[in-house]
Amino acid sequence: MKIIGLLLVPLTSMVVLWGVITAVTATESLELREYKTLWTNLRHPAYKLINELQQERLVSAKHLRHMAAQTAVEAQRSRTDAAEDTFRRLSDNSKDRSEEIRTQVNAVYTQLNRLDVIRGEIDTSLSDRLHAVESYDAIVDELFGLHRRVALIDDIPIYEQSRVNIDMSYAKELLTREQAIALGPTTAAERRMFTQIVGNRRFLVDQALGELDPPLRDPQVALITSAAYQRMRMMEDQIISGRSPRDWLSVTEELAETFQAAQMRASTNLNERADPVADQVLSRAFMLAGTALVLVIVSIVFSLRMGNRLSRELGALRLAALEVAQERLPHVVGKLRRGERVELPEVSVASTTVEIDDVGQAFSTVQQTAVEAAIGQARLNEGVGHVFRNLARRSQTLLHRQRIQLEDMQHRATDPDALEDLFKLDHLTTRMRRHAEGLIILSGATPGRGWSRPVPLLDVARGAAAEVEDYPRVTVEPMSGQRLAGPVVGDVIHLVAELIENATVYSPVHTQVIVRGEEAARGFVFEVEDRGLGMSAEVLAELNERLASPPEFDLADSDRLGLFVVSRLAARHDIRVTLRGSPYGGTTAIVLIPAEHVADPDPEPHVKEPARPMRVVRSE
């Protein structure tokens, strides 16, 4: 999962990048197509409304000069209202495309709402000619502001030509303003405004002609260089000087219509240019997105295949390593401990990755090294065992000869003090024999001491107590007459003696160690109870675990040789040894001897036990 996670990070980044590229290119195409929608719903009806407002401004100027009847004014106002209704209806479909467009359209609505006020002032003669013209100018200026706001497009050539074309349209608007002001004799204020409008229009025309591309510039140049346009310029100079040309209205009306037709053709041409560009951008977007998608898919497939292959190889390596650690090595080590021959196959991991193959070889090397170390340890343990066994056998031989001499000396001794010393030496020899047997047990061999006939379990307990240094503190309580099978007697005496000695060592010298025995449902139970300081629950649990499952003998753990000997002897005869807390605060060792090692009491009559418990009984 970590490998796949690492692969998913760049793959996810690639997918996100592909999505961003596709979205950006597709958005460009949609914005170019939206340009046509905005032309249909905003700019084209705005141009028509501007044209009708220009006509209404001219008719109103004529009416204020008493050159037009009220019926003509009303007729033009009706056409303006129809164009306004069309603009409001269509603009409502597209004004929410952006916050800027919505703000500009609302500004146009605000100016159009003043139209009734302007008309009322004209009808009641509350507005002079100049004020009426300026009122209409404010409405038209907001409409041209909408043109400039909507003309924004990501295609730079189309945007530049659209901006210049709007300037040319505004130049035509300035021409209609001149036309409305100079219908007849003008006042000084009217001439000042007329002069400003003329200068602005000429500047816009001169600047725009240099920026238009040939298809759009040629019709404009033909118009500017026409005889009618030159005649109009002469008339403008005359009006600025204070005269009133007679043919001013007819000349400007013809030029205004020509200007209007040229601007509409140019706007339509620019609108049609956006479609091929949008198609080209969309095609480029599809091609780029398709190529990127193919690359992303190829990358995903390749990455997932590589990731799956690495995952499989690492999984096989993991299983091989776990098999070596949990099954193969423990099995090999167990066979080595039992002295069996082992064959060690190599760790084989089918991999095409050099690093994983190297790790597999390293595991084989580690396995070989571990087995060699186990072999060396087994040989060392075997050598130590031989040393223990040889030393113990030699000690047993010497101790046996020593006991024979002690028995002979005891038979010939007559001095009570000398006899007591001989008994102490005999007891010391017995303890030394037990320690020699402990070495034999540590070496893995079986001590030679044994009995051919069953021995009463009471004698077994007394014999175990006799092999302890501090035997006067040991009290063996009377117990039932069950007997212990002869082959097991020596090991059980050694086991119980180790437990009794441990109890005497770890309890105060003034306290007693009690040895009890009684028949149980599954055999016979010895209890060895001391009254020492006891042990914590954790230590008891650890020791019980070691008694239940004897570990390998560790030369470094020499402080617990007795515990190791007890666990070995118990495991050899399926005897269960358990430690638990004593009610007196010390520790109680419970030894459960299986029923197959316990025989019924001897049918012959037993000698009555003395009233005082016997402390020591020595047995062969």
TrEMBL record:
<dbReference type="GO" id="GO:0004673">
    <property type="term" value="F:protein histidine kinase activity"/>
</dbReference>
<dbReference type="GO" id="GO:0005886">
    <property type="term" value="C:plasma membrane"/>
</dbReference>
<dbReference type="InterPro" id="IPR036890">
    <property type="entry name" value="HATPase_C_sf"/>
</dbReference>
<dbReference type="InterPro" id="IPR003594">
    <property type="entry name" value="HATPase_dom"/>
</dbReference>
<dbReference type="Pfam" id="PF08376">
    <property type="entry name" value="NIT"/>
</dbReference>
<keyword id="KW-0812">Transmembrane</keyword>
<dbReference type="Pfam" id="PF02518">
    <property type="entry name" value="HATPase_c"/>
</dbReference>
<keyword id="KW-0808">Transferase</keyword>
<keyword id="KW-0418">Kinase</keyword>
<feature type="domain" description="Histidine kinase">
    <location>
        <begin position="492"/>
        <end position="597"/>
    </location>
</feature>
<dbReference type="GO" id="GO:0000160">
    <property type="term" value="P:phosphorelay signal transduction system"/>
</dbReference>
<dbReference type="InterPro" id="IPR013587">
    <property type="entry name" value="Nitrate/nitrite_sensing"/>
</dbReference>
<keyword id="KW-0472">Membrane</keyword>
<dbReference type="InterPro" id="IPR050428">
    <property type="entry name" value="TCS_sensor_his_kinase"/>
</dbReference>
<keyword id="KW-0597">Phosphoprotein</keyword>
<dbReference type="InterPro" id="IPR005467">
    <property type="entry name" value="His_kinase_dom"/>
</dbReference>
<protein>
    <recommendedName>
        <fullName>histidine kinase</fullName>
        <ecNumber>2.7.13.3</ecNumber>
    </recommendedName>
</protein>
<feature type="transmembrane region" description="Helical">
    <location>
        <begin position="285"/>
        <end position="304"/>
    </location>
</feature>
<feature type="region of interest" description="Disordered">
    <location>
        <begin position="600"/>
        <end position="620"/>
    </location>
</feature>
<keyword id="KW-1133">Transmembrane helix</keyword>
